[in-house]
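User: Run a structure prediction on this.
Assistant: Running it now.
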Amino acid sequence: MTLRSLLDRFYMACAWGAALSIAGIFLLMLIQSLGRELGLQIRGADDLAAWLCAASAFLGLAHTLQAGEMVRVGLWIDRLGPRWQRRMEITALVVASTFTGWAAWAVANFVHQSHELNELTQGLIIVPIWIPQLSVVIGIAALFIALLDELACVLAGHVPRYRQAAAERAARGEFGERA
């Protein structure tokens, strides 16, 4: 298995985690609505929904970047000449990687401290808090890896995957929100 296929599988696994989290929120809300009609209350549903919401937001970041769906400075960079485009693309990726790497380190450190201190959640469902926080660490780390992946691609003289994805969508005539 090549590094490229390993990274692609990792990004896709994170995306599936995000999608399953969204599906979990949907099912939880559906069950809550039905339970309300039947006079049943789902204890801890708010806690579960919050954890799934965080998981869906962070686990989807790397795949979103790779698919060219993340907000970036492309509109400005596209107006530059080829030489300056490459320079600014590298600069943007270095800055984004630096901040994302710092965020990944800070969040991982925070979660590690929660684990070391045996912190528990404060809602109705009592679990070690590092367990639901882990999806945030994985999501930010995946985004950091994806940014480094794109930076390596640009430094090697290739077109970044997010630009390729955007160009493919434009070639198909997709210029806005997906239908």
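The chain has a mean pLDDT of 89.
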